[in-house]
Specification:
Blueprint: E1 2-6, E2 12-17, E3 25-30, H1 33-38, E4 41-43, E5 49-54, E6 60-63, E7 71-75, E8 83-88, E9 91-97, E10 109-114, H2 121-131, E11 135-138
Parallel strand pairs: 3-10, 5-11
Antiparallel strand pairs: 1-2, 2-5, 3-4, 4-9, 6-7, 7-8, 8-9
């Protein structure tokens, strides 16, 4: 199933080829201050494919905080963060913000909360390699 998503103004958009089994999409509401303030609710499936398109790169800010191991792709036009990437051993991994989905019935989203405070950098990167989308193209 292809899931389309975009920031509010459409400057950052994506097509996610979702390959997880079943009709439910597991999503995580992160408890960090950045995600709480930006409404970040994330999903990923390691076997999926993600293609991110940016119309105007000058209107994208890549924000890092904490461990500096993830980049939040923030549209400076509308303020929405549709995708987060992490480059690990030369490969780009990603999660997408389900609040930016265009064509998914909200009842399919099964929410849980999470908090990664206290997680070491090595454990964090290993978790991302296991769980984040591993086939990512950013244009």
């Amino acid at each position: 199933m292809t899931i389309d998503g975009k920031c509010h103004c459409g400057n950052i958009s994506f097509a996610l080829d979702w390959k997880a089994p079943g009709n439910e999409i597991q999503v995580r509401a992160c408890g960090c201050s950045f995600c709480v303030k930006h409404g970040g609710v994330w999903t990923s499936h390691a076997g999926s494919t993600l293609e991110v398109a940016v119309r105007d790169p000058a209107r994208v800010s890549r924000y890092q905080f904490g461990t500096g191991t993830a980049e939040f792709h923030l549209c400076t036009q509308c303020g929405v963060v549709p995708v987060v990437t992490s480059t690990i051993a030369g490969r780009v991994y990603a999660v997408v913000n389900v609040n930016t989905f265009e064509n998914v019935e909200p009842s399919r989203l099964v929410r849980s909360s999470t908090n990664f405070d206290g997680e070491g950098v090595d454990d964090r990167l290993a978790r991302r390699q296991r769980n984040w989308i591993a086939d990512v193209t950013v244009k």
